[in-house]
Amino acid sequence: MKLRPSIISLIFLGGIMLFACSGKEEEPRRLPRLNETLTNEMSDTSDLARLDRDMERYMQEWNLQGVSLSIMRNDSLVYSKGYGWADKKNDVRMAPGTILRLASVSKLVTAAGIMMLQERGQLSLSDKVFGDDGILNDSTFTAAIKDRRYFDITVEHLLRHQGGFTTNAGDPMFSTSTIMQRYRLKSPPSHETLVKNEITRKLGFTPGTSQSYSNFGFLLLSMAIEKITGEDYESWMTENVLIPAGCFDMHIAYNYYEEKYPNETRYHMQENDELVEEYNGSRTFVERCYGGNDIRALSGAGAWVASTAELSRFVASIDGRPEVPDILSIESVREMTRYINDETYSLGWNDTKESGEWTRTGTFSGTSALIKYYPDGECWIFVSNTGTWRGPRFANHTAELFRNSRTKYSALLPARDFFTVSGEEE
User: Fold this and answer.
1) CA 325 – CA 298 distance, rounded (Å)
2) DSSP strand E in 235-366: where?
3) DSSP alpha helices (H): ranges in 70-214?
4) Residues in CB range of 246: below 8 A, 6 or more apart
5) Cα(117)–Cα(131) distance, integer angstroms
6) Pairwise CA distance, residues 160 & 218, whole Å
7) For residue 201, which phi and psi values (nearest 5 degrees)?
8) Which residue blocks in 64-207 are alpha helix, DSSP H?
9) Quick one: DSSP state of residue 295?
């Protein structure tokens, strides 16, 4: 049984001390700051030298500057390594503690926050989003709505991409300069301004009757978290979701290289990728991954940065397994991973199959991320710092890499757990 209902989390000496309050004394278990603890050398073993060569060949095939790979088995982090360059211009190699943009993997983090609020009785998945009785009941939003179907949108509709939003006129989260022109704005819109303008448009379908992948819907969920908690999205998620999960170094990204976090990678496009107009209407042409889009404005739809090691720790905290205490109840985990049919999105995950395989992908300029959680308890996580011409379809090739690698190397993975302080083999 998970310890979640009886866990007290204390920040202590740069880590977390977890105590099981079950009526008998147990030794506290200190969670390390993985990005400061892990090194590439800790994952070096002769048995897995061929895995290293396969990863390097894959990087060469797709012209990737750098890749981070972490492998978890039964909630134990058994492998975590960086390949290639985090920042070649400054002679920085990719390492387990390098943080990278997660793109839409961020939606899994946001979904966990929503489920936590439901457990605390602060919202329900059936709650309406707009209208006088909705979460985002700002009078300016209500007055802006012309299509009455907006008032039927629920939290669950947004989680499952069933809110009625389409990208027929472009994705509003990646069309900042166009939106500025459309609504005659002199600067990039705030979240509130963006929502107020976008909800004047007619929905593409009646909420709940179909689905269309929507970054805008997850922005609304991020704003709902802020409205309910009265706190900034990043701050509340960090304190209530990420730190309890043992993730100390996850942040909302910035847009430019000069703004990056100290241990964040440099992002790259392919050499033949053309410059694009800067997102803010400056009419300056920039590299697509640095100023082509307002990454920070994506918020919970796609703006988190993290290492694959800490991302593994987060997944271990929402997977329902007994080895690592979950931050969510088993009921919430089951609801997030419940299979409905092949056409229906899961909650936060892209899809969760009847077999028990779960998938979460993320892609935008300069980033490709994939989480594959398998029925046998293994979880493989890959994030690169280089865009490819395949775009979102690149994840299919990485999934194939995982399948082949599992066949060859799963039996060779050592029995150890880098989630512990020492990382020594058991």
Assistant:
1) 30
2) 251-252, 276-277, 285-286, 304-306, 351-352, 358-364
3) 106-119, 139-144, 155-159, 176-182, 191-198
4) 16, 31, 34, 310, 313, 314, 317, 419
5) 20
6) 10
7) -85, 155
8) 106-119, 139-144, 155-159, 176-182, 191-198
9) T
Q: Would you say 284 and 278 are in contact if contact means Cβ atoms under 8 Å apart?
A: yes
Report the pLDDT value the prediction gives residue 230, as an integer from 0 to 100.
Answer: 98
Give the separation between CA 169 and CA 14, rounded to whole angstroms.
47
Degrees, nearest 5: CA angle 107-31-94: 60
Task: Share the mean pLDDT of the chain.
Answer: 92
Residue pLDDT, tens place only, 312-329: 999 999 999 999 999 999
pLDDT 10s digits, 174-205: 999 999 998 999 999 999 999 999 999 999 99
- Would the CA dihedral through 195, 199, 205, 209 be positive or negative? positive
Half-sphere exposure (CA, 13 Å, Cβ side) for 319? 30
Which tokens go with 348?
A: 């936060």
Residue 236 tokens read as: 């509340």
For the chain, the residue count is 426
